[in-house]
Amino acid sequence: MKDTTAGRRPQLTHATGLEPRVLYFAVFTFFSLSGGRFTATFLEHELKFSQNWMISIAMAVQILASSSCSSWLGGLADSLEKRRGSNGRLQIMALGLLLSTVATLLHILGRLWMQPSTLETDDDYFVEEDIQNHQYVPMSLFVYHLILRAVFAIGTTACSPVLDGLTLARLEDDARDSAEYGKERLYGAVSWGIANVFFGPAIDRWGFGIIYITTICSFILCIITFYVYARSNQMMYSSIAEVDLENLPDAQNSSDDKRANKDKATYRNTLFEDEDSQLQRMQPKLDVLTFLTKTNGLLNLTFVFAMFTLYVGMAVVENLIFLYFEFLGGSYSMCGLTVAVTVMFEFPLFHYAPVILRRLKSPVWMFQAACVAYVIRVLVYSIIPQDHPYWTLLVEPLHGVTIGFVLTASIAFAAEWVPKSYEASGQGFLSMVRGLGQFVGLCIGGVIEGRILYRVLAVVVGVGSIMLAISHCLSVQEQKRETQRRDDHIDRKAATIID
CB count, 10 Å around CB of 10? Predict the structure, then answer.
């Protein structure tokens, strides 16, 4: 009987190692404790950005820097990962977090830069209240902080798409459905919620200077987690090789030990050769847009546009909403509580996201649900009366629906057209689209304020959602016509054969 194991590449299993969920937990702890949702208020109170346009520019610079580097960093991580035992994706993530930590700590120099002498009046009389009321920030200091925010964003960008790509590759290695991404990403939501519950009261008590300490502590936590994850998930190449070499078919002449040893040596050398790197040498560089438009081009492009419009709206909710909560009269403890409520509803959504996606049979419908939840939420924001900030808790669960559904839908969408070993590249492209949408949203947030801002964003997201719905209907009709034409062709061919 023929041995079917000959020439087959061994499957490397991670069954005994840690899951990517521990990475999500650590990384999202860093994201929250290095500013997170409180970044806008950090800029306002700690860095003295007194005007709304200053905060919006700073946040937009972060997004622009993130978008410009996300695709490149994803490709770099994929390239380093292909080197055996390099843990390239983890290395990129660690370097990125180090960069973000250093950038955050360098904001402290702004305290030395902005001395009382810079706020003297014409009578050489210093008004201390000027600092407290945020009435003056030197342009040079403003530019300095903008540069640091850009560097911080580049560092965090080295984590999000790369971690998503690492998770997708891990799911594929373990022969699991990519829709199970939500179960791993869930633990990021857990750490995000827990950290914000304690972070808000800490800011109320000690002020925004606490961010410098929490950033250092969370960075150390991430490095320790990366190290433990890498050690626990080391692929036992030598063990796998020995097991497979035992099943290597002997040469036709079993007495020819020299030839058998040569065959085994050859097999050992090729055992760890990356098949995808061979394809990469033979094929041109990955063109994301080519794969995007290869099949269902109109639907795919419309999906990307709808994602762009949704993140135009989400940028304001993710980055500037706490300023609006301050306008309504909320405290930082209340702001942290809103995040906790959001995360509580993200738990079941991320856990059951694979089931929901399979029942909906398309990431488009899941994405549409995310858009509807967003529109309802921001419209309610726009009618909440002042001095009643806790009313926002009634619609905060809808943010969990938006986050849980849009992330799961975008991951499933990318998995349909991104080839193997380019997972981080595909996620980097989507991260770039999200970043561009966030940049535009923050620019809008710098021009429009108050309740009208959220009504405008509802319209923007609604337009993208409607365009996606129309494109999806057209795609479904085209698929039905194509199926009908194929069936007619088969019937005609069968009739010809019978005749």
Answer: 15
